[in-house]
Amino acid sequence: MSSADRTIQYGIVPAGTAKSMSGLELLTAIMEGTLPAPPIQKTLDFRPVEVARGYTVFAGNPKIEYYNPLGTVHGGYTAALLDSCMACAIHSLLEAGYSYATVEIKINYVRAITSDTGEVRAEGKVIHSGRRIATAEGRLLDSAGKLYAHGTTTCLILTP
After folding, report:
1. Every domain of the chain and the residues it spans
2. What mean pLDDT is predicted for residues 57-72?
3. What is the Rg, in whole angstroms, of the alpha carbon atoms belonging to the chain?
4. How confident is residue 2, by pLDDT bands cut at 50, 70 and 90?
5. N- to C-terminal Cα distance for the chain?
6. What CATH number is given for 7-158 in this structure?
7. Which residue of 19, 52, 72, 108 sits 20 to 30 Å from the alpha carbon of 160, by its own alpha carbon?
């Protein structure tokens, strides 16, 4: 069954379950629907569509409900997608029991997003992963490959 054919269940993965799985296993299970998707995905209408070691892709649908007073999608929507893809790219490298905390995120907004932009894809890729610190970069693109924003993150690796 494809992700488009199933009803997505939203909720919180129990901490014991999350800690018993590698980051890649956890993210894959959420993407495949065997574990619940975080509620933020429902609120902002985005989902993981690709997960690999050091790389994740989230797809989202910008809506008029996300507009700011200037008549475009609020930058917080862009930041949420980029934060998710970059941090999850780092998470995908972690062994069972490890977690992370975002220390810093930097976003460069290149062009405005509207509800007419159509589906966007946030692609995150790890730049460096050490024992305590990891960095990643992300790009937010439309279906034609046009760049809307890009960014970087730094995450602190938390040991079990």
Report:
1. 7-158
2. 97
3. 15
4. very low
5. 35
6. 3.10.129.10
7. 52
